[in-house]
From TrEMBL, chains A, B, C, D:
Residues 3-120 form the Gfo/Idh/MocA-like oxidoreductase N-terminal domain. The lineage of its organism: Bacteria, Pseudomonadati, Pseudomonadota, Alphaproteobacteria, Hyphomicrobiales. This is Myo-inositol 2-dehydrogenase/D-chiro-inositol 1-dehydrogenase. It comes from the Bacteria. Residues 128-248 form the GFO/IDH/MocA-like oxidoreductase domain. Its EC number is 1.1.1.18, 1.1.1.369. The keyword Oxidoreductase applies. InterPro entries: Gfo/Idh/MocA-like_OxRdtase_N, GFO_IDH_MocA-like_dom, Myo_inos_IolG, NAD(P)-bd_dom_sf. Belongs to the Gfo/Idh/MocA family. GO terms for molecular function: inositol 2-dehydrogenase (NAD+) activity. Keywords: Oxidoreductase.
Length: 329, 329, 329, 329
């Protein structure tokens, strides 16, 4: 069975998902929509599909599923509309920056019996997925401590910061999802510290650029997260999980694995320079998993609740950083 | 401009190239041909193209280029036919197992002013290509010594051995091409030693499974090649190049970069298990380079002469191994 | 000039320091003292020195310096006695488990104009020292975030736990010293979380075995520390420091750097199994630095104040873990 | 039991061995001898031993064993003298540059029932020794192919070249010994190629600076050796052994294991800069093994025959390189 897709939003992340859909042998990219006509036309041209309005896609009988890549503040409304229209929905994170709005949205989805997957792409990275598999296979015994390193190559532009909901809801939220994915228990306490070290302007906008977070579960399992908005050596994405019998870790990735040795030492190239090159395989696997859920009814993961839980951790972390105390959930 | 392709041969390597063609935005896979109807139908079905006979493809006005993936003993004839038919030709290595036949074929290609590229895929591996680029950029000074390690995960079936022309013409030939690609000078002497260590049956068929080769150029640059038909830990493909100012090397590749640490030590997964997974990116880049040559006239590399030179090195290595002396070219 | 040493305490750590003294060409091991006669005799025999009582060493005119390796609760008294006796003093950490007692002791040392070095051996590990040097050389720009991983191969015996002052004062204290050594600013806030995951008995003794700590300096620099009393794969000791221009890190160490590759993957041996093998070079360099301070008057580092500051961080971390809030210093 | 040593020769390698002897708890350095009075005095001063003449050491009743570190052309004579004088002899490689002279010397040793160990230090490197142990433990099955990389940081001075016997007898001879140590069978054929790529003066002296060698045993096991007199990135010493079940390899060593990451990539420091720093542990273990042979009668390895066999391989390699053909032994 082939799943027929509409992609809503033809911006940066829309292109990523359109490519993943177009390359999947069990998917057909039928239409894209975007408020900017040129963006929609360009994307449609690249993959030989139609340009339609969001309304047209909502009513289309030749579209089974949509990928929502529009601005964040439209996500919850579009999820509700398309679930009610009977489409399977894949929505880029976050559902909304406000947890109450997310809860309402999830209520609509549940009542409608809708299909909703949320775009935490890292669960589908083959290396991180292999870390999870090693845990599930018992390779390290019982999970005890998780250490997540996540550093962006460089800070986003000011206007992005303004709309992002802040570093915890925009960047650390991915790490909160990975923490939940790997800890095997729900975090019950969050302690965070946040600084402005990279760029003063980020501070002037009320946000932070360098944060450290500790999560603790009911049984005392711990997760430490280290984030920065800048890493001169590339997109630093590492995970290690310590258990009663050992450790499993995922290394950083680079496009080219060569090493040049000379009088100054041994040098390997910088890491991938951005999330789109680093997570190419993850985006493809993510859409494949969504398609499998639509066609074979496999369990949706991450689902709307996963989106909500990660957001609650982000809210708690922000509160902890501001008040200087542990926040319990 | 889009290049319209016919693929001749729908076997293992035919599938690899058909996928590379189908995935390339500047190529269109028009037809496949194969003596086995089912193989042709299956491949055509997977990519939504036609099944045609070789004759039909030869005469087709809607096909610009062919990829020859048929049995080795048909390569030279097909190259000649399709070059004379005005098609650009990409031919899997080798052109022929007999150097005289290759020379005659290249004469026909040259006289016809035809386009012929030979499938030494490793030149297009991003890691090996980066090694070459580092050399070209002057990162290691003047090249002095090249060390190539190439070990297959396991020996091929006996019937393959019989048709292969022997390990030097089948397996080491890739390393001979890489040696020429990296040495910056033509080898003028070959010294080889060959043993049967992996499987006695290979010896009974008159072939070897473990070989070591030294190449030397006119100025004394050296290349050492180490081959085995078996590597329990996966497809071992490494290169290091030493120059007057330093060394550049390409590491092995694995599908998943995780490490599990426990009481017995730190363990990373085996390498890729075969050439098709190891060289996925190389096959795509190879077809892209061929397309660029067809559409933009960029220099063909590797061309027919490269195929001939590698074959001559293979012939010389076999002679050296049998006679126990250095063979000069 | 040769410095003539007495070693007080011939137990595990006493042996380590006696060896470092005996191997140093600028030191002479004159005498050892221990309440257990056999321990003192054995150690004296191994290095061809005398057995004396602590009183005798205090009064000896042929001893310039002492290394205090006796039980923790005797450290402060012995420091005071030997400083007043005019000996240079190297004391194993900690000076005392009680910060007020440490302060009093340091007052005595200061008034006497005595020489006191405290045994935070990790500052002298060649790898960690090279990390600090890279920072000092400007290799990573301005320090922003430090990540310290420190895991023991296995938990100590219960009786050790009881006397240790708890994990923060016994184990994390080394990491607090490294944090101060690398951050370039004094921490002003400590947030810690502590669990019992490895061994329930540790919890029954009122201690923890798994802790995560965040330190923050006045300008917002952060340090994350991850500790466990168990690592099946050996003594896990890593440091990474992130700065405005890059990162510098020190890898783990193992006794033998081989790798075995087979059908199950690539395996390297476990890490060093204990601090004495891991930090062999550090102990030698530490004594050499102490000797240099005695003979050439080079600045003592780490000194008594460093010992006090690390203890205060440990006390603050314990308070934070118990009260669930950030503790400011 | 303590073995009492005399060291003959107080030059570079004499100092290395004197230190190994002085640091060994079961050895006592009694005396050193050197034609240059100052060299002997300096070395004796550093370790608090006497200066004696070679004659005096030969007749000394308080000396059990000697370490011969004099110029190569004196080795065979001194071995004979000291064996006949009843001393256990450790001789730096080579015994002599002439195989016939070595044979005569070994005849004298055998007739006298003397103890003779030859200084192939690499067998005692903990990493290479662990490679051998992994083979002996069956970790890789039956040995099939050995790959040895050995590159000096820089070429020796011309006067050293002149006395060295040439690169095969001076440098590659260590690799020939390692090959024999690891192959598990005696090589029966040698094929070598030799170039002058690093320094023309080396060629003018009749020597080479870059060589590649293939050894083959009776059953067809192969060893490839790659040598250069120059490696800008340090002392490159690697071994890998391939067997029927897998591979074992020993990595390069560096003094400090840190990595600096920045915009240009990830850089680790160069390797050790010379054999004395690279093989510090090996020299200590070598003398310890010699002492064990003297005191406990453990089998001498490498013995005089090992020295002779390596020299024969060197002679064969030189002949092969000059004549362009495989030389059988």
């Amino acid at each position: 069975m082939t799943v027929r897709f509409g992609v809503l939003g033809a911006g940066r992340i829309g292109k990523v998902h359109a490519k993943a859909v177009a390359s999947n042998p069990q998917a057909k990219l039928v239409a894209v929509a975007d408020a900017f006509e040129k963006a929609a036309n360009d994307l449609a041209g690249a993959y030989g599909c139609e340009v339609r309005s969001i309304d047209q896609i909502e009513k289309a009988s030749d579209i089974d599923a949509v990928v929502i890549c529009t601005p964040t503040d439209t996500h919850a409304d579009l999820i509700e509309r398309f679930v009610l229209a009977g489409k399977a929905v894949f929505c880029e994170k976050p559902i909304d920056l406000d947890a109450a709005r997310v809860e309402k949205c999830l209520g609509v989805v549940e009542k409608a019996g809708g299909t909703l997957m949320v775009g935490f792409n890292r669960r589908f990275d083959p290396h991180f997925a292999a870390v999870r598999k090693a845990i599930d296979d018992g390779a390290i015994g019982k999970v005890e401590q998780v250490v997540i390193t996540s550093r962006d190559p460089g800070p986003p532009p000011a206007e992005y910061i303004t709309r992002s909901g802040g570093i915890f809801r925009d960047m650390t939220i991915h790490d909160f999802d990975m923490a939940r994915f790997l800890l095997g228990e729900e975090p019950v306490a969050v302690t965070a510290t946040a600084s402005v070290l990279v760029d003063k302007k980020i501070g002037e906008l009320g946000d932070f650029d360098s944060v450290s977070v500790i999560l603790v579960t009911a049984s005392g399992r711990q997760c430490v997260i280290s984030n920065s908005r800048r890493a001169t050596y590339g997109y630093d994405q590492r995970i290690e999980v310590h258990g009663s019998d050992g450790m499993v870790s995922a290394e950083n990735q680079r496009a080219v694995s060569i090493e040049v040795a000379g009088a100054l030492g041994y040098t390997r190239p910088p890491l991938h320079d951005f999330f789109m090159t680093r997570y190419t395989e993850a985006y493809a696997a993510e859409i494949a998993a969504f398609i499998a859920s639509v066609t074979k009814g496999t369990k949706i993961s991450p689902d709307g609740k996963d989106g909500l839980m990660a957001l609650r951790l982000a809210d708690a972390a922000l509160k902890s950083a501001k008040e200087g105390k542990t926040v319990r959930l």
